[in-house]
Amino acid sequence: MDKFRMIFQFLQSNQESFMTGICGIMALASAQMYSAFDFNCPCLPRYNLAYGLGILLVPPFILFLLGFVLNNNVSMLAEEWRRPQGQRGKDRAVLRYMFCSMAQRAMIAPVVWVSVTLLDGKCITCAFCTSVPVETLGNASHPGLSQGEMKRVLARIPCKEIYDGQELIANEVAVRYLRCISQALGWCFVLLMTTLAFLVRSLRPCFTQAAFLKSRYWSHYIDIERKLFDETCAEHARSFAKVCIQQFFEGMSTDLAAARCHLPRKAPADAGEAAEKLLGITDQGTMNTALKSWHRCKPPLHLHPPALPSGNGWAGEGQPPAHPPVPRRETAAYYSRV
Amino acid sequence: MDRFRMIFQYFQSNSESVMNGICGLLTLASVKMYTCFDFSCPCLPWYNMAYGLGIMFVPPVALFLCGLILNRQSFVMLEEWRRPQGRRKKDLAVIRYMCSSIMQRAMVAPLVWIVVTLLDGKCLICAFSGSVDPENFVGFANASAVQVQQLLAKVPCKDDELMRNNTSRKAVSRYLRCWSQALGWSILLILIIAAFLARWLRPCFNQATLLQARHWSNYIDIEQKIFEETCCEHSRLFAHKCILHFFESMRQEIKLHSFSLSREGEGAEGEEDLLWGITDQDQVNKLLKAWYYEKPALDVS
User: Fold this and answer.
1) For residue B143, is it within any domain?
2) For this chain's UniProt record, which GO biological process terms are given (chain A) (predicted)?
3) How many angstroms separate the CA atoms of A193 and A248, rounded?
4) Are B113 and B59 in contact (CB under 8 A)?
5) Which pLDDT belongs to residue A228?
6) Residue B269 lies in a domain
7) Cβ neighbours of B69 (radius 10 Å)
8) Which of A37, A153, A254, B107 is deepest in the core (most CB within 10 A)?
9) What average pLDDT score do residues B95-120 get?
10) B110: buried, middle or exposed (CB in 10 Å: 19+, 13-18, 0-12)?
11) Contact between B236 and A224 using a beta-carbon 8 Å cutoff
């Protein structure tokens, strides 16, 4: 656990290493997923191609979409794209920048999957075993085999235990050939991807650096603004809830006092904090009524403005005195229609 | 764990050691990739050479490009190279220094791959098994030319049925591996001597220029980092102010629509500040709706 915490701290130390860390983790996850996957070639003529190409192309597509789903900034991009203009203009360059950086990060896991698949060789061997050039590698003139029969025999190449075409073409020869082609494709794919990544990153300082700085600043701004707004709203909600609950307890205790026709008790001069925290509820019956009322009849979501302090002994505590609640509610109801 | 923490902290202490750290990691990754990679020679006449030399040279190119991409300084250098002159002159010596230090670091992983490949020997055996002189090996001396080519091409494949118990195959294999390892060690020696000479002899040539170039390249790197950090901080303050203005304008609007209650709102100041005068479900909903439909202008003057 300590090790993970340290690695996280290291990765979060600055934005750049955080993003590099995320990319590294996704690449490792993708490679691990491939090695955990149990590849099982069907060894039947048409199914091989479908299975092989399916394993090569469908998981990368899923990983790409997952890369978008798991990225928190997708909702930010969608919100910025769809919001009405209002008093703030929309900058298409910022939207493009945000989309491009998300797409680049989402591409890493699929690219790693395709590379690892090609370098491993099982997929291509499975998919293209019926297209092996038997004339050059084996004995095409082996008698007694129609086209369909030959395809059926060749389709069993990936499954060594049931392969019965040793006279047609040796299993090891065919597997080596297909694997060589697959690995060559794999390395070419890796080279192509790294070249593309290098070009994309290096052409930017050469052509569009100023526009890039602008887009990066404003996309970061939008992200921070959203987070700060959420924090401010959370703070507001906390204060709102606190005042709402305080007013509920006050309302409770004054209601009960009014119902029992007791005079409001004069608090002793040295009441202190504990009496304040009791919020006027000091016996079991009152507390039970308060709890029941909280469940049965939650207070409305509007806060009464605090009344002015009057001249009795309560002034020192800062709690509003026992104002009859009804007139306050009327004005509060009007207040809430704003 | 303490040791790892110290290592991480050391590598993050300045940008040069960050780059050295990345270079080291990439080298380790390249060795690991080679050991994980399942080398399987096709054992066919023309394919062998293409496969063997491909495995020896294509991954190093990809590793070199990776080394350039992962190194932040390469883009800092490009930016410095392509920027308009403005009021700050461009010093080509600094750009050259940066370029050479970037290239040196990016070359380490590819060279390590090539050396490991040569020391292991499989690539060279695969690529050049068809090019040995068959006269020197008893098993291949008396076959026709085409047959010899086919047989030699199968030398890298130990488990092939023709080669399983062939002693000449082992002889060819040993011969090629010996050459491969000799080449590998020689290249390693040459590289280390070159690096040693370069470091030793450098102070003899232009040490002052070198110190200047190093200082200013470090400066450019740090300046860019600090600029990014300042922009981040600025955008945070900007956002904070923007949101405060927004809440304040909401409070003003609410005050305008209510009368005779603003006096009473003076008490309980602590909570009032945090509530912004928004004390009602409808008002909160209105605020949230306004935030989406009419984001405030980007102007906090």
Assistant:
1) yes
2) ATP export
3) 63
4) yes
5) 92
6) no
7) 17
8) A153
9) 94
10) buried
11) yes
Indicate if the pLDDT at residue B270 is higher than 80. no
Q: How close, in Å, is residue A101 to chain B by CA atoms?
A: 15
Looking at per-residue confidence, does B1 or A255 come out higher? Answer: A255
Q: Which two tokens stand for residue B281?
A: 């479900």
Task: Identify whether the C-beta of residue A210 lies closer than 8 Å to the C-beta of residue B246.
Answer: no
The verdict on a CB contact (< 8 Å) between B61 and A191 is yes
Can you name the residues that pair with A302 across neighbouring β-strands?
A: B280
CB contact under 8 A, A240 and B275: yes
**Residue A303, SS3?**
coil
Residues of A in contact with B233 (CB under 8 A): none
pLDDT, position B136: 81
E strand or H helix at B128: helix B122-128
Q: What is the 3-state secondary structure (H, E, C) of chain B?
A: CHHHHHHHHHHHCCHHHHHHHHHHHHHHHHHHHHHHCCCCCCCCHHHHHHHHHHHHHHHHHHHHHHHHHHCHHHHHHHHHHHCCCCCCCCCHHHHHHHHHHHHHHHHHHHHHHHHHHHHHCHHHHHHHHHHCCHHHCHHHHCCCHHHHHHHHHCCCCCCCCCCCCCHHHHHHHHHHHHHHHHHHHHHHHHHHHHHHHHHHHHHHCCHHHHHHHHHHHHHHHHHHHHHHHHHHHHHHHHHHHHHHHHHHHHHHHHHHHCCCCCCHHHCCHHHHHHHCCCCEHHHHHHHHHHHHHCCCCCCCC
Q: Is A278 on the interface with B (CB under 8 A)?
A: no
pLDDT at res. A7: 64
For B239-259, letters b (16+ CB in 10 Å) and e give bbebbeebbeebbeebeeebe
What percent of chain B stands above pLDDT 70?
92
Inter-chain touch A308–B1, beta carbons under 8 Å: no
Is residue B116 assigned to a domain?
yes
- What is chain B's mean pLDDT, rounded? 85
State residue A295's pLDDT score: 86
Tens digit of pLDDT for each residue in B160-191?
777 777 788 888 899 999 999 999 999 999 99
Cβ count near A227 (within 10 Å): 13
> Residues B266-272: what's their mean pLDDT?
51
Q: Residues of A with CB below 8 A from B265's CB? A: 305-306
Residue range of the domain that includes B203: 1-209
Q: Give me the helix-helix angle, B15-36 and B2-12, nearest 10°.
A: 120
Residue B251 lies in a domain: no
Phi, psi values for residue A133, rounded to 5° = -75, 95
The string of pLDDT tens digits covering residues A82-124 is: 888 888 888 888 999 999 988 988 899 999 999 999 999 999 9
pLDDT of residue B3: 72
Identify the pLDDT of residue A166: 83
Instruction: Write out residues in chain A with pLDDT < 70, as ranges.
Output: 1, 3-4, 6-17, 142-143, 260-272, 275, 306-338
A29 contacts: CB under 8 Å, gap ≥ 6: A109
Section B129-154 average pLDDT: 82
Bridge partners of B280, per DSSP, are: A302
- Which 3 state secondary structure label does DSSP give A302? strand
The helix (H) or strand (E) run that includes residue A183 is helix A171-207
Rounded Cα distance between A316 and A310, Å, is: 11
Chain A hits for B274, Cβ within 8 Å = 235-236, 238-239
Q: Which residues, including other chains, have CB under 8 Å from residue A243's CB and lie 6 or more apart? A: A303, B268, B271, B275, B279
